[in-house]
Amino acid sequence: MTLRDVLKTGIARGTAIVGSFALCATVVAAQGQDPHPTTPGTTGSPNSLGPTTPAPAPPANPQMMPSAAHDADILAQLVAIDENEVRAAREAEDKKVDTPILNFAKMLHEDHMKDLDAVKNMASRLGIDLMHSAAADQLHDKGSQLISKLDPLKGDAFARAYVTEMVNGHREALQLLDDAIKTAQQDEVRQHLTAVRQTVAMHLRSAEALQSTTGMQKDETPDTGPDQRAEWRTAR
After folding, report:
1. What whole-number distance in Å separates Cα of residue 128 and Cα of residue 71?
2. Which of 71, 94, 136, 156 is 20 to 30 A distant from 120 in Cα terms?
C-alpha cells in the first residue's frame, strides 16, 4: 500500500470517529432537555429543577384599603369607650349608690351595651376588622385607671367621684365623636356616629344635672389628679 492510500484510509477513519462523537453529543443533549421548557416570566413544570418565578400575589383585600382602615380605627375607639362606660357603670351598681345615681349608671350600662353590640354587628356587615389601634389601646388603659381610682371609694365619696368622671369622660367622648364624624369614610359609619353623639350628649346632660345635686363644692373636688381638679373648677 502506498503512502497516499494510507493517508486516505486515516482521513476516512477520522471522519467516522468525529461523526460518532457528534451523534453521541446530540443524544446526550436530547436526554438532558426538560420536556416542559419554561419561558421567561412563567412558572416552571413540577419536574423542573431550575428556578421558577414566584406565584402571583393574591389580590389586595379591599377591606384593608386606607379608607376602611380609618373607619376601623374610629370604631375600635368607640368600642373602647363603650366598654369603659359599661365597666364604670357596673362599679357603681356594685357600690349600691343612691337611687338617682344608680339609675344613671343603669342607663349608661344599657345604652353602651346596646351600642357595643351595634358597632360589632355593623363592622361585621361592612366587612370592617375592628383592629386594636394605639388610640383604642390608650382609651382602654384610661378606663382601667378609672376603675382603679373608683374601686377603693365608698358612699358619697364614690358617688361624687363617679359623677365627676362621667361628666369629664362624656365631654371627651363628644369631642372624639365630633372629630370622627368629620373624617368617617363610609356613610353608615358616619350616620351611626351621629346617632351615638346624641345619646352621649344626653348622658352628659344627665351627669351634669346629677353633679349639681351631689353636694360637691369647689373645695370638695375628689382627689383625681391636678389636671382633672383644674378641669372640674373650669367646668364649674
Report:
1. 8
2. 94
Residues 6 or more apart from 199 whose CB is under 8 A from it? 111, 115
- Give the CATH fold of the 64-235 domain: Ferritin (1.20.1260)
DSSP codes joined into one string, 128-188: ------HHHHHHHHHHHHHHHHHTT--HHHHHHHHHHHHHHHHHHHHHHHHHHHHH--SHH
Residue 231 CB contacts under 8 Å (≥ 6 apart), including other chains: 168
* Residue 101 near residue 162, CB atoms below 8 Å: yes
Helix (H, G, I), strand (E, B) or coil at 30: helix
Q: Decide: 51 and 62 in contact? Cβ < 8 Å.
A: no
Other C-beta atoms closer than 10 Å to the C-beta of 69 total: 15
Q: Cell for 4?
A: 497516499
Alpha carbon distance 224, 235 (integer Å): 15
For residue 209, give the C-alpha cell.
344635672
Distance CA 168, CA 234 (A): 11
pLDDT tens-digit readout, 19-54: 444 444 444 444 555 444 544 444 444 444 444 444
- Report the alpha-carbon distance of residue 112 to residue 91 in Å, rounded: 15
Cα pseudo-dihedral 157, 163, 166, 172, rounded to 10: -90
Comparing CA positions, the residue from 229, 175, 180 lying closest to residue 204 is 175
pLDDT digits (tens, 9 = 90+) for 70-119: 999 999 999 999 999 999 999 999 998 899 999 999 999 999 999 999 99
Domain layout of the chain by residue ranges: 64-235
